[in-house]
Design goal:
The protein is mainly β. The protein is built from no helices and 11 strands. 0% of the residues lie in helices and 58% in strands.
Length: 120
């Protein structure tokens, strides 16, 4: 199976920065697109940013210019650098990956989430 583990969430003041990481492990042959999502209390999960296997990136409008997504394919790790954080960025952040694992086929996997809290 495939596991995704996020880390880096914390309590930070508005205007501060955090760097989230998502490490993939298990039966992995190819990791295609990877994504960061977030879910605030009482709200639906929403897409924050995505990155393809060759590094093409896409961002939600509400994070453009503040967040940067990146990945290290050798380390099977994705990052989210978050700058100029706002109270409305408070949420649980989840990573998702499109993984081909050979006999296991191709599936989307989710991590367990990491809490980001921004105090105003």
């Amino acid at each position: 199976q495939v596991q995704l583990v996020e880390s880096g969430g914390d309590l930070v003041q508005a205007g501060g920065s955090l760097r989230l990481s998502c490490v993939a492990s298990g039966r992995i042959l190819i990791i295609y697109d990877m994504y960061w999502y977030r879910q605030a209390p009482g709200k639906q999960r929403e897409l924050v940013a995505g990155i393809s296997s060759n590094g093409r990136t896409d961002y939600a409008d509400f994070v453009k210019g503040r967040f940067t997504i990146s990945r290290d394919n050798f380390k099977k790790t994705m990052y989210l650098q978050m700058n100029s954080l706002k109270s409305e960025d408070t949420a649980v952040y989840y990573c998702k990956a499109d993984v081909y694992s050979g006999a296991g086929g191709r599936e989307h996997y989710w991590g367990q989430g990491t809490q980001v809290t921004v105090s105003s």
